[in-house]
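RECORD TYPE: inverse folding
INPUT: structure tokens
STRUCTURE:
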């Protein structure tokens, strides 16, 4: 499996190989503030399965142990890396074909903006799907 994508201006291109998992829509405050969007759709791959193929991502430490990757030229949010987990989350909306992997649930809905309707029949979790933060 190969998922390719990039930022809005085209400076950053990436490829995520391997089987995506934990496809979700995250409503947490950090995702909202760092992206400027009401929520973010993510999928995970094992860290070695993600590769930047063009340009160099800028990094932002959004919380302890976490680095968010984005394009320093156009600002597109691209990745979320918690090094302790051995996996990297990739912004689904930045895929060339974002139809899949479609989110399978909503997480951090306790932080959801009230006007964002969860207009699907996906499971919704107040915090993370395992209850962790
Ligand atoms: Zn860019
Ligand atoms: Zn989040």
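DESIGNED SEQUENCE:
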């Amino acid at each position: 499996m190969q998922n390719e994508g990039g930022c809005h201006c085209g400076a950053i291109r990436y490829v995520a190989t391997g089987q995506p998992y934990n496809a979700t829509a995250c409503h947490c405050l950090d995702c909202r503030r760092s992206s400027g969007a009401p929520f973010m759709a993510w999928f995970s791959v094992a860290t070695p399965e993600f590769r930047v193929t063009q340009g160099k991502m800028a990094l932002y430490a959004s919380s302890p142990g976490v680095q968010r990757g984005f394009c320093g030229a156009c600002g597109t949010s691209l990745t979320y890396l918690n090094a302790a987990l051995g996996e990297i989350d990739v912004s689904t909306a930045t895929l060339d074909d974002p139809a899949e992997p479609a989110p399978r649930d909503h997480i951090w809905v306790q932080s959801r903006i009230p006007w964002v309707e969860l207009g699907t029949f996906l499971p919704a979790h107040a915090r993370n799907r395992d209850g962790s933060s």
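NOTES: The chain is about 5% helix and 40% strand.
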